[in-house]
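User: Good morning. I'm curious how adenosine-5'-triphosphate would be positioned relative to this chain. Could you predict the structure with it bound?
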Amino acid sequence: MIIELPEHVTYILHTLAEHGHEGYAVGGCVRDVLLGRQPQDWDITTDAAPAQVRALFRRTLDTGLQHGTVTVMLDHTGYEVTTYRIDGVYEDGRHPKEVSFTASLKEDLRRRDFTINAMAYNEKDGLVDLFDGAGDLRRGVIRCVGTPGERFAEDALRMMRAVRFSAQLGFAIEPGTFAAVCALAPSIGRISAERIRTELLKTITSAHPMHMRLFYETGLSRYFLPEWDAMMETEQNNPHHCYSVGEHVLHSLALVPPEKVLRLAMLLHDVAKPLCRERDEAGIDHFHGHPQAGAEMARRILRRLKLDNETIAQVCGLIRWHDDNPPLTARNVRRAIFRAGESLYPAIFAVKRADIGAQSDYNKEEKLRYVDDYEAIYREIMEKKDCLSIKDLAVDGADLIAAGVPQGRTIGAYLNRLLELVLEEPQHNTRELLLEEVRRLRDEEEGGQKLQE
Ligand code: ATP
Ligand code: MG
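Assistant: Good morning! Here's the predicted structure, ligand included:
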């Protein structure tokens, strides 16, 4: 078996060999090449100690020195070169308390999580595959190196990684490995939110986001996203739906592009349904208020998972407005855009289409046509550059002060009134007409009616 290594990797391996060291490309890159995919980055494993690696290359960074990793820089690309290691005890199920170095490639491969991630390659030895990773790749299986229960006890995050790789590759989790995840699921509770977030995001933005189901089936999500379990366990008896909330969400995930914000929005768009469900006399379920309640729940969940504020704002906005269906006139659509905020457009249309796509066939064509028409009106409004917010008004606060409006909160109240006018009649967004309106409002006020703030 011959793998064509990139020039830089060959250079690093040759340099190591010239100085009497072993070196191999290892882990994810070997797996990806065998799958016929382009590796994201090339990691190298070697028997050379970190200090020796540093001495052999002109530019290096001490990125993970305590774990034996030196980053070698070649033409602005970094290659992680890690000394063969054996992980020490994982007292907290989180970090190895210490790592020790070893002279044996075999020991290094043995500490890796899954057989498909535990292969190494160089020109001299070809593929080093001690645990039949290539066979598991062919069979489409995620299998632990060694005894699954022991490996998950060392590092509980590996349980989420099993689900994540199954989602990225469309693989099954080998039954023994799967059973060990189920048995040890509660220990995921000891893992930091940051590490959990990484695996969750990689799972939902993968090629097979429906593997999100495995977090429920293994019992893992109960400990890091119990709201997901509630969705999986909530039926919806309603003509618009043919799935439980959770199954509906799984289908909707697969219907949006694999971007973080869109996938998170789909994952959580119905998160409040389990709490909002009301069954009427006819036995039909209703979920009044779920978009609003869902946006609030999602905010708490995403904070807990340590997502950044920008992502949280976008995702919660999409959830809040995913079910907003204005009657389709330009005026109503301008108001809807103002209500939700321009930054949610056009993403909101992808969310709405995926939501409908994952519903029953009842009125489906009609619902999809509605979204098409909605988007067409939105596009027209954008093309005309209609004013949609206070910052687009033809006048600003300073103009109002110059026109004699008292400073302070009154200014904001006036600007809101002007925006309302302009959302109704976009052609009124001229300095002249707006200042005329300001004069009219002021006269009105002097006539005794205080302008509502
Ligand atoms: P990707 O970078 O696409 O997420 P990868 O396989 O490169 O996939 P990394 O998290 O970058 O995954 O880890 C690199 C390699 O280190 C893995 O292929 C695996 O051999 C090993 N590894 C990473 N995390 C663990 C872990 N928690 N336990 C055991 N081995 C691990
Ligand atoms: Mg990697």
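The pocket of magnesium ion (ligand 2) is lined by residues 28, 41 (CB under 6 Å). The first strand starts at residue 23 and ends at 26.
Let me know if you'd like a different ligand tried.
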